[in-house]
Amino acid sequence: MIKKFSAVILIIFSVISLIVGAIYIWQGASKYSQITSMAAEEKVQIGMTEDQIKNGNVVDTMSEMQKAADTIREHRRGIAKTYEELLGTGKFDPTNPKHATYAQAINLENYLYVGMLSLGVSLSMIGIGLFMVMMAIAMLLTGLALFPEKAKLS
């Protein structure tokens, strides 16, 4: 009786795990696709080689986003090492080209870092989903193996 109950519980959990794992994979893949499409629409080419630019390549992968954001960060720090250094004792002046350039650079830099992070989270979701599916299969096989022979025949 306990063996049959354990087998049924394992089979139920395996079905739940399979469904949740499939949802994780679907959500991760759809978000990954959405983020890369949105990044491609922006047509950012910072950090690309001349050949990549001629071929129409754009920043749309994690490594490209990292490289572009790091490049922008380096250039932004050429204007001022910190926001406090940029402003000195004053406050932000949008009519000051140096302030405006710094603000635009930090916005693009953050956009690229958030995109990179989002792609990483999407890939993590896919990995978690795949693990859940593998565990679902293992639990299902274990549940079926534990199921009593008499119950299998009836």
Number of helices: 6
Apparent shape: elongated
Secondary structure category: mainly alpha
N-to-C span: 15 Å
List the helices and strands and how they pair.
Blueprint: H1 2-42, H2 50-54, H3 62-79, H4 83-87, H5 97-146, H6 149-153
Helix pairs in contact: 1-5, 3-5
Overview in brief:
The model has no long low-confidence stretch (mean pLDDT 90). The protein is mainly alpha-helical.
Structure description:
With 154 residues, the chain is mostly helical. It is built from six helices and no strands. Helix 1 runs antiparallel to helix 5 (97-146) and helix 3 (62-79) runs antiparallel to helix 5. The longest helix has 50 residues, at 97-146. The radius of gyration is 26 Å and the shape is elongated. The two termini are 15 Å apart. The mean pLDDT is 90.
Keywords:
mainly alpha, 6 helices, elongated, single chain, 154 residues
